[in-house]
Input
Amino acid sequence: MSETVSHEPLAGIRLWDPWSPKPADGIRLHAVHPSRPGKRFPLARSSSGVHTLHSIPHLDHAPEFLPTALVVELDDPSRQVLPVRLEPALPCDGIWSDIGTAFSGIAPAGSVPLFAHPCRQAPAGWVRLRASLRLGSSNVAVPWAVMEVRHGSRLVAAGLSSPTGEVVAAFAPPAPARRPIGLPASEEFDTRSWSFDVIFRWSSDRLTDSVPALAALASQPAVAVQADVPDKFKTLRCGPGETILSSGPRPGSSTVILQA
Output
């Protein structure tokens, strides 16, 4: 008589790099001990790209002693992505990704999206957006703001501003547009240009965040761009591989003033 014993992990997290795109590698996840805030312990990464938590050291794993949520900190030694904080509920049924649908366009279901560090180089041929965000009321840098890039109703890219207000987003250009049927031959139609809408989401609470929770970033409200900023910051039209938002005090970036 044989007996099979299975051990279900407390939580599993799959990170997704939209710039690859594939499950992220080289990223470290550390959980903060629920009863010892100064203690952190690593999550193990499986061959399939899932970071798993099997146990919490020095803690009784009976259901009544488990915390209802755990703080997990994301760190990238290579500085390719920005740090964020994850807060999975325990125990987690399957792979955790409970951050709503705010970023569903840039990461598959069951995955947690990553956000590029401002110094990261985008893949060749991609459309790249870089901006330096400042607050209109005080001219201070705007940290942890989400920059959404939409093509029609579809989210094609999202960037996260660093503590110094620098943000970058990138995406592969759409396929060339087809010339509309019935359009006169004498009328020009550019098949290699597309229009995109850029939306900024931010909450003033982020000014005091050292490293924000991803779920809080996903729920930030949209904020207005100062009226005297050129329209190119709101609706962008570009060709493949072109860098947009390309003027400003820093190379490759433009200053965008947020009304918040």
